[in-house]
Specification:
mainly alpha, 49% helix, elongated, binds zinc ion
């Protein structure tokens, strides 16, 4: 099966993504297998960085 890694482009990417997914599961303490939810989890870490703690 050439599509064994689908929807990932490679086994390497698949493992990386599964790792991210696993961390998301730990955070939400709930097994989520919905692709849309996985995308949402991946977007949570791209919104921070605008904090300014100057006093
Ligand atoms: Zn990839």
């Amino acid at each position: 099966m050439e599509d064994e890694d689908f929807p990932f482009c490679s086994d390497r990417c698949r493992k990386i993504d599964l790792g991210k997914w696993a961390m998301g599961v730990y955070k939400i303490s709930s097994p989520v297998l919905d692709p849309e939810v996985l995308e949402d989890l991946g977007g949570l870490g791209s919104g921070s960085g605008g904090e300014s703690d100057e006093s």
